[in-house]
Specification:
The structure holds two protein chains of two kinds.
Chain A lengths: L7 H19 L4 H21 L6 E3 L4 E3 L1 H20 L1 H6 L6 H18 L3 H19 L6 H32 L4 H6 L6 H17 L8 H8 L2 H24 L6 H22 L6 H20 L4 H27 L1 E2 L2 E2 L9 H4 L1 H15 L5 H15 L3 H27 L12 H15 L6 H7 L7
Antiparallel strand pairs in A: 1-2, 3-4
Helix pairs in contact in A: 1-2, 1-5, 2-3, 2-5, 3-5, 3-11, 3-14, 5-6, 5-11, 6-7, 6-11, 7-9, 7-10, 9-12, 10-11, 10-13, 11-13, 11-14, 12-13, 12-18, 13-14, 13-17, 14-16, 14-17, 14-19, 16-18, 16-19
Chain B lengths: L4 H17 L7 H24 L8 E9 L3 E7 L1 H24 L4 H20 L3 H10 L1 H11 L4 H30 L4 H7 L3 H18 L8 H8 L2 H26 L1 H27 L4 H20 L4 H32 L10 H4 L1 H14 L6 H16 L1 H26 L16 H19 L2 H32 L1
Antiparallel strand pairs in B: 1-2
Helix pairs in contact in B: 1-2, 1-4, 2-3, 2-4, 3-4, 3-11, 3-14, 3-19, 3-20, 4-5, 4-6, 4-11, 5-7, 6-7, 7-9, 7-10, 9-11, 9-12, 10-11, 10-13, 11-13, 11-14, 12-13, 12-18, 13-14, 13-17, 13-18, 14-16, 14-17, 14-19, 14-20, 16-18, 16-19, 17-18, 17-19
Amino acid sequence: MINLNYISAEIFISLSIMFLLILGVFKNNSSNIVHNLSIGFLLITGVLILNNNSDDSVTLFANSYIVDSLSSLMKFLTIIGGAFVLSISKKYLKISKIFLIEYPVLVLSSILGMMVMISSNDLMVFYIGLELQSLALYVLASFNRDQLKSSESGLKYFVLSALSSGLLLYGCSLIYGFSGSTNFNIIGNSMDSTHYGLTFGIVFILVGLAFKISAVPFHMWAPDVYEGSPTSVTLFFAIVPKVAALTVFIRFLYVPFFNMIDQWQPIIIFLSIASMIFGAIAAIGQNNLKRLVAYSSISHIGYALAGLSVGTNEGIQASIVYISIYLVMNLGLFSCLFMMKRSDQYFETIDDLSGLSKNHPILSLSLLVMLFSLAGIPPLAGFFAKFYIFKSVIEQSMYFLAIVGLLATVIAAFYYLRIIKVIYFDTEKEKYDTDHSIWLRISLTISTLLILFYFIFPSKLVKIISGINIIQ
Amino acid sequence: MNFPILSSLILLPTIGALFLLFSKDKNSNTGKYVALFTSFVNFLISIYLWYLFDLTTSSFQFVENREWLKGFVNYKVGIDGISILFIILTTLITPLCIISVNNTIKVRLRDFLIAILIMESLMIGVFCSLDLVVFYLFFEAGLIPMFLIIGIWGGERRVYSAFKFFLYTLLGSVLMLVAIISIYWIAGTTDIVQLYELGIDKKYQNLLWLGFFSSFAVKTPMWPVHTWLPDAHVEAPTAGSVLLAAILLKMAGYGFIRFSIGLFPVASELFTPLVYSLSLIAIIYASLVALMQEDMKKLIAYSSVAHMGFVTLGIFTITQQGIEGSIIQMISHGLVSAALFLCVGVVYDRMHSRLIKTYGGLVSVMPKYSILFMLFTLAALGLPGTSGFIGEFLILMGAFKDNFLVAVIASFGVIFGAAYMLWLYRRVIFGNLINKDLLKIPDLDNSEKFILWSLAIPVIFFGFYPEPLINTIETSVKDLIEMYNYNLNIYAFEVKSND
């Protein structure tokens, strides 16, 4: 008898999606209530996950679904990210005239897909979760369908993502063909690691996954989609799917294929170095903040992958710490973006930030903290994130990766500094509106304080994450 | 005795900055008084610290040890004879900087004071920290306020200079970070006291030394990575230049003594010729460049490069005189260069020009200013009776002991130093008063007099009576050199027994 308690969160969120759909269809003008309810449901889901959090791992449905400390933490991050995205983007949606019931429902479905991905212990389950989240994301990207750019980005994302899903599926079938199963544990046990077929399978799956987290050289979609989508969707793209995809990365590499580390390690190192350097260099010429965030997220994913390439529990933990801090930094950064509004129009280029510090000192201080943290300057949280990564990388004597990565941070520092320069050194423009919603203020305050004062209690986060030991 | 006196030294300015942050008015004098008060209290605490300090031991005192990054890095601070002087220098210079903002900073005074106070916290932290990671944290965090100080309140090319300063320093430091993390995996700890005892395996020392060197060489700055310094100095506001010259550059010298010599004796021995040559180039080249400058701030900036060349030279002689001389030279240069930048600031506030040719004949308009300026000029060129002499003399003495040729070449630097400083003085102060605008400018006001005299007094006092300085550092330096030689012998012995 399967204990359904372990998947109560997934069951609950599916029921809420259906309920919200029915409510939205039958009640007039229900966007507001659906939006608020969805945030509430997400929080309840979060509580359910915490409730089931146990240290030992449990597998369900013929070993195809796993609930352990890794999945609980990552699901929790996903849900927190989703809840924040929904709560701070309400006003933006209203002003952009896309405040519809479908929006929260789609966000919830994509989160459901990610939860399935995170917990998957089987290639089939993983693929179902992946497609569920991708389908919802295609629609979200083109949600502002009256705008050419938004539709374009949705279409672009759909075409490229479908291609990568195809590759991924091909990889799955190869692995199934050469190992006789789609289950991670069985693949791991019965594997003849000398076989080239398996290596090809791994490569195809890695390509698919790298596309989802926009690692170089599979990043081409990211800048266009980030720029074209509504800002709230960009925020969602920037943080939540990355958490899920990174979890799959961890599980896929370290459960079935850990003894093939020689085969996949160079691939991950290449993805990591290419992302770090390309993300840093390509961002220099950008003037649109959303595009810039796309490149910056590419380079940040490079650092998270550097942690994964190490092949130790410490490396995995460092990656998880990195992605958690990255999530908070981006929440703060986008909260600032949502505040750049003047008479119902949002601004999103760097020039619009000019002289911000004179009119809005608190907002620019928060931005300053976020940007220096993204650049990895101590004592802000972003430094510690990088510090843990390089600690685990150097432990395995991978000096080349460490030095390239750190040099890339210097290049990346340049474009963050450029934004700070515009904010603090340039002449001021008109003031922005200050009638922000309370949620926006709260999220900005929380993220700024977390990033700024992380150094006082740096062990708290690490302590939670140190329970995650994928490699036995 | 368990009162965390060092942590309170570090925290106090930050608390003052927080007060300022939450104060309503942005440009009134209240903010200035708050900042002045906190930094002055900090100065008193550091003097009291000196009074409590036990001169007879070289082990670290006032040590605080708290768990920080669990099972990996502890927040550990403590001071010995070397670091205490730098702390006092920091706490002395900061209040003077805050007084000097009167005439220089016209916009966003409150933000400026916050930046200065946070900077003070971080600088004290650098000199106190007894853990490599904690040190790196303070060392790097200083970039943020300094970047803003140069960029917001600087001159015309401030953006370029601020970027150059930030990126140069960051580029140097990331390699130090790699070295620090490697030390953790090689030795199992980043605690300096434990590392001193354990020693670091010889085969890793060279690369690690280079990692640290890349950071300190940029910060010192040594030739050829010194080019950020003139830019940063010229564009920074007066208080920023003062902090840069007086304290930020000393972080690197301190780092050389504490880490390069202390942790990597074998590598230090190997790389001594490199440091010697770079130092000599810095001394000669920077002096010659200084001769040609038309901008006063730039001239003093290049003289800083030359003086820091003496410091690195002295440190790597690994003699008692050389290292003591370097420390005294750093303290003295901290006082003198700060005073010189303030002197330039005084005339800049009045004439809004840093070019030497704007001036000339100031002696008849500003007699008091001319006297003080002369005093600091003479101190900068190392006239006996000023603190500058003691440092340079000891360094050259140490250098003669170690390498005759190096010492001779370095001595030329002293002559060049006299040349460019005196020529600067002659062109600015003496000569005919051609520029008629100069006739209207007032002599020093009270606050300027106060600032300059509070720098002049220690310069003269320690010039005649350097005992207190030497007593403070003597035991620590002696033990450092003993440890250095002891470690070298052990490694030499290992090599022999392996053969």
